[in-house]
Amino acid sequence: MAETTLSPDGVQKAMMTFNGTYPGPKLEACWGDTIVVHVRNLLPNMGTTVHWHGVRQLNTNEMDGVPSTQCPIARQDTYTYKFKALQYGTTWYHSHYSLQVGKLHNNAI
């Protein structure tokens, strides 16, 4: 995760991105697959986490990415999320630390 200058609505602004893109890359899995995502925090001067919104975390609550279940990933550190796909459907993922949730929603396309 990094901060990148993008113009999703025609106005340049600093946005939190995954691999330099917003929204982040599409992740696909089949029921029962193990999902492994390495997140490197390149945000300036702040920690971060990734919340897998709507993804069931049966026996992997520590992979949920919310402040009550995970300490933030320190700047320049990497954290590996690993969990099983236990449901069908489409969900999304987003930063979920401190004010990043609100900033992300303000940047929604």
Tell me about this structure.
The chain has 109 residues and is mostly beta strands. It is built from one helix and six strands. The protein has one helix at 100-106; strands spanning 2-6, 13-17, 34-40, 50-53, 78-84, 92-95. The strands form three sheets. Strands 1-2 form a two-stranded antiparallel sheet. Strands 3-5 form a two-stranded antiparallel sheet. It has a two-stranded antiparallel ribbon with strand order 4-6. A hairpin with a 6-residue loop joins strand 1 and strand 2. Residues 105-109 have low confidence and may be disordered.
Quick recap of the structure?
The chain is mainly beta and 109 residues long.
Following the backbone from N to C, one meets helices and strands in this order, namely EEEEEEH
Structural class: mainly beta
Count of extended strands: 6
**What does the radius of gyration come to?**
14 Å
Straight-line N-to-C gap: 18 Å
Shape: globular
Strand content: 25-35%
What is the count of DSSP helices, taking H or I runs of 4+ residues?
A: 1
Strand order of the largest sheet: 1-2
Helix content: under 10%
Low-pLDDT stretches: 105-109
